[in-house]
Amino acid sequence: MDKANNSVVSEFVFLGLSSSWEIQLLFFLFSSVFYVASLMGNILIVLTVTSDPHLQSPMYFLLANLSIIDLIFCSSTAPKMIYDLLRKHKTISFRGCVAQIFFIHAVGGTEMVLLISMAFDRYVAICKPLHYLTIMSPRKCLYFLVISWIVGFIHSLVQLVFVVDLPFCGPNVLDSFYCDLPRLLRLACIDTQELEFMVTVNSGLISVGSFVLLVISYIFILFTVWKHSSSGSFKALSTLSAHITVVVLFFGPLMFFYTWPSPTSHLDKYLAVFDAFITPFLNPVIYTFRNKEMKVAMKRLCSCLGHYRKIS
């Protein structure tokens, strides 16, 4: 590491997911397929929403931005992991490690707030449909997006400001495939119990608090619809099931990482694989490919692209 950090460690070594070449090859195929599928699915959503005039509503604006966030999130860890699966010596520089932690926490914090914004959007659409376009105006949607990114950057910087100057002079092996903040803190040459507690409070309580807030909001929406219509509860459950599923898939691994950061547990590595590859892939499937309007818009986009290729 550079002199500013007063350390002798210049890089960190990843142990990866397994020492078996056969299992690593299996993970390489698995992760490559899901990463490419995540890229294609989320890019298709962004192109569809931005090009189709029938999808210029607040819900689709937020969905397109969720896809952009998923693209950044999976690209912050997946390419490096896929590359390392073909290498025997898996390393990352200190600066690269810090950059990876920054993007993971910044984008993760942004997605937390954006999911809360999407829950509010569904609340207004279902409980106050006559005032939906007034409340969820383009300016309000832009405010939600800007606030989401501001909260994400602040959440990440608050933790990294204490990490960049930590001395690393001993072991440099991380039992993971990416730079994980709790594991990185344990490699420092000083007592980091207070910093680990801060990470637990910052990331753990934020994730748990956001999850509880989202669950309460969706329960309130379902109860409100059920109160006004005896058959409406099932319809609301069908509408909100996609949102609830994505919320559980996103917050489940996060709450495990930062509320139960056991140094002897290997389960967090495999949950991280799920968070890095499966969730970004499932988000477009759950949110949009089950949506009739999105399917029709995607067909229009594909037909337009096909017609353009014939002309050219």
Give a quick precis of the structure:
With 312 residues, the chain is mostly helical. The chain has helices spanning 21-51, 58-75, 78-84, 94-127, 132-135, 138-163, 181-185, 193-228, 232-259, 267-289, 292-311, and strands at residues 11-14, 91-93, 173-174.
The N- and C-terminal alpha carbons lie at a distance of 53 Å
Largest sheet: 3 strands, mixed
Order of adjacent strands in the largest pleated sheet: 2-1-3
Mean pLDDT: 81
Helix vs. strand class: mainly alpha
SSE sequence, one letter per element: EHHHEHHHEHHHHH
β-sheet strand percentage: under 5%
Give the fraction of residues assigned to helices: over 70%
Low-pLDDT segments, ≥5 res: none
Global geometry? globular
In DSSP terms (H or I, runs of 4 or more residues), the helix count works out at: 11
Radius of gyration equals: 21 Å
Index terms:
11 helices, mainly alpha, single chain, globular, three-stranded mixed beta sheet, 312 residues
Structure write-up:
- This protein has 312 residues and is mainly alpha-helical.
- The chain is 74% helix and 3% strand.
- The protein is built from 11 helices and 3 strands.
- The protein has helices at residues 21-51, 58-75, 78-84, 94-127, 132-135, 138-163, 181-185, 193-228, 232-259, 267-289, 292-311; strands spanning 11-14, 91-93, 173-174.
- A 3-stranded mixed beta sheet has the order 2-1-3.
- Helix 2 (58-75) packs antiparallel against helix 10 (267-289) and helix 9 (232-259) runs antiparallel to helix 10 (267-289).
- The longest helix is centred in the last third of the chain and has 36 residues, at 193-228.
- The N and C termini lie far apart (53 Å).
- The mean pLDDT is 81.
